[in-house]
Amino acid sequence: MFKTLLLRRTTTTTTTHRHFSTSLYTKYSFTPPPSLNSKTHSQTPPNPYPKTHTKKNKPLYQPPSSLPNPNQKPIKPDLPFDLRFSYTESSPDVRPIGLREPKYSPFGPGKIDRVWTGVCAPAVDPSMGKEEFQKMEGKRKLIRGRIQGVELSEAERVALVEQCGRSRTKRQINLGRDGLTHNMLNDIHNNWKQAEAVRIKCMGVPTADMKNVCAQLEDKAFGKIIHRHGGSLILYRGRNYHPKKRPAIPLMLWKPQEPIYPKLIKTTIEGLSIEETKEMRKKGLAVPALTKLAKNGYYGGLVPMIRDAFLVEELVRIDCQGLEKKDYKKLGAKLRDLVPCFLVTFEKEQIVIWRGKDYKPKEGGCFLMARESFDNSSSDADPNHEGRDVSHDQIESDSCDEK
Fold this sequence. Notes:
Blueprint: H1 2-28, H2 38-42, E1 83-84, E2 120-121, H3 130-148, H4 154-163, E3 172-175, H5 182-192, E4 197-202, H6 210-221, E5 224-229, E6 232-236, H7 274-286, E7 289-292, H8 302-309, E8 315-319, H9 325-338, E9 342-345, E10 350-354, H10 393-398
Parallel strand pairs: 3-4, 7-8
Antiparallel strand pairs: 1-2, 4-6, 5-6, 8-10, 9-10
């Protein structure tokens, strides 16, 4: 009985399907597609493009500048100083305690003939004696003196300052949080092709120590600062400067990884116990803020402001909300050496510093002039003295030393 019913059902479906297809063809001249057929619909159509091989993963892209070229000879830079990523934000006196990554040259493999130590590419082998370092310093002074030539007169200096004004030219180099970088030296020489002087705008953390910025600019670029107003500088190239005889400056292809330095904030402050340190940190965060720092602002008056505050207060708090963490940490390290003071905490985007138990204020005033005069300035600068303001005697008599 069941078999007969199943046969009737199959016959009715086939007849209806045939009747349906014939009626469509007779009335509309339409032939149903094979997908309507139950038999063809259940079967999967064959793949016209069978896979004959598996797809291989492409290798990671490497720029041609990062690949070693056996036919290219390494550049021999004749710059008489150690090549660093930043000349103002890194000091040769501070040694790191470790490296975050293996040593690799940021100039590329086989680009220069100097060895990258993870921090710098030294011009002289560190194992050599002091005589080699003295020769290198003498060579640097000789090169700078030969390029500068005869000192500018007051009329020539004023004319160059007017040519580099904002109303006359838009040509400007911005010096940011990394300070005077190695590649910035190449930008300065490229601007010196078009004009005798270039305007440099300093912003951010390096402006806390403008004397160091000015000294490093004159020392590394072999130029001379002829005007300074706040964070704006005008760097003169020299009378005997020739663009075709500029020094060979190899470019850094990428920023090297920063090494590991000792912690700025320690468990206990020097001379205090753990309980006294905890109490001082709570007290420091409750002290009214001395000032609030703007992002990428000018911090040239911060050091004398803190020195004056230490005359009446023991703890000073600086509000750094909006600044990046690495920026106010670098600023705290500068203040520790410039004021000098003890770092208490960096919590809640604040810099809290302590003057210490035996605090003695420096003699003389600590106010810096916003605009400095460069009249009758000396022609030779001392590149090793970072605390002097561009080695101008008249400026030193008008403004106090930040260090």
